[in-house]
Design brief:
The chain starts with a helix and ends in a 12-residue tail after the last helix. It is mainly alpha-helical. The longest helix is centred in the middle third of the chain and has 33 residues.
Amino acid sequence: MKDIARIGMRYAVIAVITAVANLASQVVAIWLYKGPYAVEISILVGTAVGLPIKYVLEKQHIFEFAASDLAHDTRLFLIYSLTGAFSTTLFWGIEYVFHQLFGTDTMRYLGGAIGLTIGYVIKYRLDKRFVFVTRKPYRAQAT
C-alpha cells in the first residue's frame, strides 16, 4: 500500500505541474492572439506544452524508465499520446453525460472529476502495460 500512496502523491504533483503549464500557456496564447478560434488554438497550445512535460515527468518519476535512444523515446511518446487520447475521451465523455443528465455546472464538474479520476487510473495502467515496458530484443530463430 505504501508504494501505491507514493505513486499517487507523485502522480498528483505531476498533474498539478502539468495543469499549471497547460493553463498558463493557454493564458499566454489568448493574450497573444484574440482572433477567430482563439480558445481552440489556446487549448491546442496548452496541450502541446503540457503533454511533453507530463510525459517526461511520469517517465522519470512514476515509471523510472529510460529509453534506449531518441527513436525509442519518440515511439514511446507517440504511444503515450495515444493512451492519453483514449483516457481524455473517456474523461470528456463522462463529464458530458453528467452535464446532459443533471444540467448543472456542479454535476458537470463532479462528472469531470469522476471521469478524470477514472481516466488517470486507466492511463496509468495503459502506460504501465504498453508504454513504459522493457521488451526483450527480437531474435530471429535459426532454421
